[in-house]
């Protein structure tokens, strides 16, 4: 039962407009790396308050640049 409650709290945080800065979601209390966008039909986005978001973005960019250099 606790997991369902926690998921409800996380969903509530991602729906709170105070956590959205334009298209960017920033909430240090939310431990998720990827969160659904305010309108879930639009997909997912990074939680830019998480340090792992920047690491993930840097790795993705390095993979793209590295694949272009090697090919």
From TrEMBL:
The keyword Membrane applies. The keyword Transmembrane applies. Keywords: Membrane, Transmembrane, Transmembrane helix. The chain crosses the membrane at residues 41-65. This is Uncharacterized protein. It comes from Labilibaculum filiforme.
